[in-house]
Amino acid sequence: MAKSIQLYLHVHQPWRLREYTAFDTGANHNYFDAPASSAINNANILRKVANKSYLPTNRLLTELLTKYPGFKLSISITGTFIDQCEQYMPELLDSFRELVKTGKVEVVGETYYHSLSFFYNRAEFDRQVALHAGKIKQLFDVTPTAFRNTELAYNNDLGKWADVHGYQAVLAEGWDKVLGWRSPNYLYKPANSATTGLLLKNYKLSDDLAFRFSNRNWSEYPLTVDKYIGWLEANQGDLINLFIDYETFGEHQWADTGIFDFLSNLPKQWLKKKSHQFRTISEVTNSSEPVDTVDIPYTTTWADSERDLSAWLGNRMQQEAEHYLYSLAPSVLATGDPDLINDWRRLTTSDHVYYMSTKYWNDGDVHAYFSPYKSPYDAFLNYMNVIRDIRYRIIEHHAEDK
């Protein structure tokens, strides 16, 4: 059977908040510029991850795309990542431009600020998607034809939205509770969709690379390319959707684990068979017909063992933070102040509430790995201090208007 790999890599860095106390509220509106000596300095974090992950991965991918005509992939890049590149590291953005210039890399659309706005403010969601599409067009001269929501958050409403807005494809998690007996390795159609295709992540094969690759206690360690291709070939279906974070290469899986060697050898070994391909997301929907409709009435994501929104909205702190944030939207937008609006939108980035998670066991370990805070409660208090200052700035605008 002919099989194709859809390798999709997601690039994101949030604007992390500096330590912002109650004494800063009303006095200092600088939320994101931590001192250079701080562990949460955004410029330092970007440069560190760039040197470990983004730059070597981009060099390798550009080499592979040039060397193997059949190799292709898809990427998405958040607006918050792009903004940091423009401010701190323009050469990193240039390396992504070189990738896209090969003509073999699709850029997938999403929200500019990596937000959960689809679930709180649909008009704001539309604005953030439009802002992202405009930025991608400006930087890469392409218009996204495939879409992924933040953290692969998906339900029937999003599928219908993608269809109404003319997207050829939308991405989601291939979660067992949604698929039942079906395999994620086929093209599906969202419920209530006329033309949009639905591609579902093969989470088992994706997570073998993203999470288990360097785990010496894993029964399959070490994972070789030949072994992995054997698993791909044994999977039922014609599509192998490998959806992973870009930072898998060099940051989450360090170079000394052999992850770059694995990536280097995968195209060569996979393309040895004429029945094997790599395709971009939109290429699949342009050349294949959906085999079935998938009904997903409740929201799924690619995070944590529950695969739902509980990573971001699972406790009262997270819920309260998002409630207060989005309740300010009309007042913030009414000011017309571009700096205030941009600051507020940076606060919609889902990472801020992710840091507030109080989960335990394996999921809790993952949250703690990404969080710059000592505890979820510190993350909440710091964030709410900033929210209070946003409210103060709104009041200032009203006073000036009188």
SSE inventory with pairings:
Elements: E1 3-11, H1 42-67, E2 73-77, H2 79-88, H3 90-101, E3 105-107, H4 122-140, E4 146-147, H5 156-164, E5 169-173, H6 176-179, E6 189-190, E7 197-201, H7 203-210, H8 225-234, E8 239-245, H9 259-270, E9 276-278, H10 281-287, E10 293-294, H11 310-313, H12 316-327, H13 329-335, H14 338-347, H15 351-354, H16 361-370, H17 376-401
Helix pairs in contact: 1-3, 1-9, 2-3, 12-17, 14-17
Question: Could you characterize what this model shows?
Answer:
This protein has 402 residues and is α/β, with parallel strands linked by helices. 47% of the residues lie in helices and 11% in strands. It has 17 helices and ten strands. Strands 1, 2, 3, 8 and 9 form a five-stranded parallel β-sheet that branches. A three-stranded parallel β-sheet has the order 4-5-7, with helices on both faces. The termini are far apart.
In short:
The protein has about 400 residues and is of the alpha/beta class.
Descriptive terms for the model:
10 strands; globular; three-stranded parallel sheet; 402 residues; alpha/beta
Number of strands: 10
Portion in beta strands: 5-15%
Mean pLDDT: 95
State the end-to-end CA separation.
71 Å
